[in-house]
């Protein structure tokens, strides 16, 4: 059964209560996810030359090619992208992401001297991929991130290429690069690890309401549509066309999808267009 939460321009929230993790448990969850992900990388995947996708996979590929430490590339590739997109993310997400990336980087540096826990590459790819995916998903579950490739790519659109296709292309290039550098068999192990991590990410966040349907009642629907697309890459469609003569005089209702971590930013963008607008969040069951 759905409940509604209505946000008015006065800042008051009516209806259901939002479940918010206190800061300390959230920090513990993000740190635990970062440590688990670093174990998957350094004690299973990296000793066998196995890489995955995203900034984590690109960092691993660069570390294996240059023989520099993995933690250095994890830090240098993730944090600049986070700073570049700081205006499009919620401040709490940014804080917990910085914390997670730092622990992730330090964890790989500490574990680097230790050998692989498993000598069989196929088993290492499966277990390492699952451990990495669980760590990434656990950090996401508690409001942070260890790999911000998807978040960064969502801000771009090149021609007919959607952000999802750009991310898929990036991951394919990383896996192809691993194949050219380490051989076909290692590329196969990398694909297995990537798929294992991709599926394992879903486990910690299963049942959580990451996405919500939002209804916006406003006299400036066209402007709100444009600004949401510009700043959040969110497409808002009309659920009810504006009444009266034109969007400026008539009241219409827009429907849009919003990630729960973007909620504050979403409200800010809408209220910059129309302080009198009414925003209703419908959490998905």
From TrEMBL:
One Pfam family cited in the UniProt record for this chain: YitT_membrane
PANTHER family: UPF0750 MEMBRANE PROTEIN YITT-RELATED, UPF0750 MEMBRANE PROTEIN YQFU
Keywords (A to Z) from UniProt: Cell membrane, Membrane, Transmembrane, Transmembrane helix
InterPro entries attached to this UniProt entry: UPF0750_membrane, YitT
Name of the protein in question: YitT family protein
Membrane topology (UniProt): Multi-pass membrane protein
Organism listed in the record: Paenibacillus rhizolycopersici
TM region positions: 20-39, 70-85, 91-111, 123-146, 166-195
Localization: Cell membrane
């Amino acid at each position: 059964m759905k409940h509604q939460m209505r946000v008015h321009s006065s800042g008051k929230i009516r209806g259901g209560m939002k479940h918010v993790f206190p800061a300390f448990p959230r920090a513990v969850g993000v740190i635990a996810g970062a440590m688990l992900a670093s174990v998957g990388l350094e004690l299973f995947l990296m000793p066998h030359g196995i890489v995955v996708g995203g900034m984590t996979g690109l960092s691993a590929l660069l570390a294996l090619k240059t023989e520099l430490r993995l933690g250095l590339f994890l830090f240098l590739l993730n944090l600049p992208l986070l700073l570049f997109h700081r205006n499009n993310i919620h401040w709490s997400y940014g804080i917990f992401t910085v914390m997670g990336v730092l622990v992730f980087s330090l964890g790989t540096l500490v574990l680097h001297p230790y050998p692989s826990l498993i000598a069989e590459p196929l088993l290492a790819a499966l277990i390492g991929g699952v451990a990495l995916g669980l760590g990434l998903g656990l950090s996401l579950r508690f409001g942070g991130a260890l790999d911000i490739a998807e978040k960064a790519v969502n801000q771009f659109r090149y021609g007919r290429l959607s952000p999802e296709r750009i991310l898929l292309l990036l991951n394919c290039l990383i896996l192809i690069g691993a194949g050219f550098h380490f051989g076909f068999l290692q590329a196969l192990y990398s694909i297995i690890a990537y798929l294992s991590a991709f599926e394992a990410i879903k486990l910690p966040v299963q049942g959580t309401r990451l996405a919500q349907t939002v209804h916006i009642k406003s006299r400036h629907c066209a402007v709100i549509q444009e600004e949401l697309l510009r700043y959040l890459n969110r497409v808002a469609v009309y659920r009810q066309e504006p009444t009266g003569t034109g969007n400026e005089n008539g009241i219409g209702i827009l429907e849009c999808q919003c990630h729960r971590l973007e909620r504050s930013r979403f409200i800010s963008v809408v209220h910059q267009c129309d302080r009198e607008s009414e925003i209703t969040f419908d959490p998905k069951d």
